[in-house]
Amino acid sequence: MKRVLLFSALFLVGTFAANAQEINKPQTAANVGMAPIQQGNWMVGGSLGSLGYSFEGENFNIRVEPRAGYFISDGVAIGLGLLGSLYTAPESDAVWGYGVAPFVRYYFPEGASSTGRFFAQGDVGISGSSPGSGASLALGANVGYAHFVTNSVALEVTAGYNYSKATVSGSTGQNGLGVALGFQIYLPGQR
Q1: How far apart are the C-alpha atoms of 87 and 109, rounded to whole Å?
Q2: Could you report the per-residue pLDDT of 17-40, keeping only the tens digit for each?
Q3: Fewer Cβ close by (within 10 Å): the C or N end of the chain?
Q4: Radius of gyration over alpha carbons of the chain, in Å?
Q5: Model's pTM, two decimal places?
Q6: Can you give the CATH number for the domain in which 172 is found?
Q7: How many helices (H) and strands (E) does the chain have?
Q8: For residue 138, is it within any domain?
Q9: What are the pLDDT digits (tens) for 111-129?
Q10: Which residue blocks in the chain are alpha helix, DSSP H?
């Protein structure tokens, strides 16, 4: 009898709990138009995972690039990004890289939808590496797509060409193609 009462009580509690919960689907897109990329707004975010392969040799790299920017006009942002990377190659030690790179980003009005925008970004900066000393040039030219999940948050995918040179004596430049996933938070500015 005790088991029947316990089972009945658990069944009733479970039934009421299931009915009390409101089931909502997560938001996957927002109709934003031009609002997030207007003059005076800010963006903060970056690439969380960036993979690349060098043309010069059998090496692999992974990068993390936080960045912040300001929209100087509608669809055009300038800003600063920080670079953190790990380069690996067969039969050698891993090389940790770091750097800073100002960037310019342009959002194309053509091909845009109400929930996303294509963009192009160029970076020019300086970088260094763990076993080296001094700084060297870091360049990047990338294209991407920003998909707005909410009015102020976009998920991004980028692909492009990147060049950097380790600050190890006798090293050559590393250049190759890379793909990155990331996000941006768009903050309204004061008007």
Answers
A1: 36
A2: 655 555 566 667 777 778 889 999
A3: N
A4: 23
A5: 0.75
A6: 2.40.160.20
A7: 1, 8
A8: yes
A9: 778 889 999 999 999 988 7
A10: 2-20
137-179: pLDDT as tens digits: 888 899 999 999 998 999 999 999 877 765 555 455 566 778 8
The answer to whether residues 100 and 83 touch, using CB atoms and an 8 Å cutoff, is yes
Domain contains 99: yes
Instruction: Answer whether residue 16 is part of any domain.
Output: no
d(CA 90, CA 107): 39
Residue 50: CA count within 13 A, CB half-sphere: 27
Q: Looking at the domain assignment, is residue 166 inside a domain? A: yes
Whole-number Å distance between alpha carbons of 159 and 138 = 16
CA 71 to CA 125: how far, in whole Å? Answer: 20
CA distances to 9, 10, 92 from 2, rounded to whole Å, are 11, 12, 69
